């Protein structure tokens, strides 16, 4: 899976949230100052070429929709991150993540619950 640029990722976030959208819906989703229509059109064209987005035509209008699920996109990135920066060691990544992100005690306890739950699933 190819990577998206930051600008493409921001647009993809809007599309994931909207599920399907016309150009005007995408422009409305942006905070002020909004990007130019031509900028969004260029981003959409690149994202169609990368096979992240497709569209349905209604007369002169195109309704865009994502071809990639948000969870699939980010899981590929997290796995790439672990592979590239943490010698493919999930525990090195987890250690870095828990120490360097200033998680609160509550957030750490939530993480622990998630991990314990996954351990139970793997035991079955």
TrEMBL record:
Domain of life: Bacteria
InterPro entries: BlaI_family, WH-like_DNA-bd_sf, WH_DNA-bd_sf
Record bears the keyword Electron transport: no
Any one Pfam family match given in the protein's UniProt record, by short name: Penicillinase_R
GO biological process: negative regulation of DNA-templated transcription
Keyword vocabulary terms for this entry: DNA-binding, Transcription, Transcription regulation
Membrane-spanning ranges: none
Molecular function per GO: DNA binding
Family in the record: Belongs to the BlaI transcriptional regulatory family.
UniProt name for this protein: BlaI/MecI/CopY family transcriptional regulator
């Amino acid at each position: 899976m190819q990577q998206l640029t930051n600008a493409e990722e921001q647009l993809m976030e809007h599309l994931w949230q909207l599920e399907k959208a016309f150009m005007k819906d995408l422009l409305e989703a942006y905070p002020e100052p909004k990007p130019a229509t031509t900028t969004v059109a260029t981003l959409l064209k690149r994202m169609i070429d990368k096979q992240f987005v497709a569209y349905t035509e209604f007369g002169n209008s195109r309704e865009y929709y994502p071809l990639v699920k948000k969870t699939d996109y980010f899981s590929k990135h997290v796995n790439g991150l672990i592979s590239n920066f943490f010698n493919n060691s999930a525990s090195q990544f987890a250690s870095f993540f828990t120490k360097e992100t200033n998680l609160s005690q509550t957030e750490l306890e939530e993480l622990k619950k998630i991990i314990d739950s996954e351990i139970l699933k793997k035991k079955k």
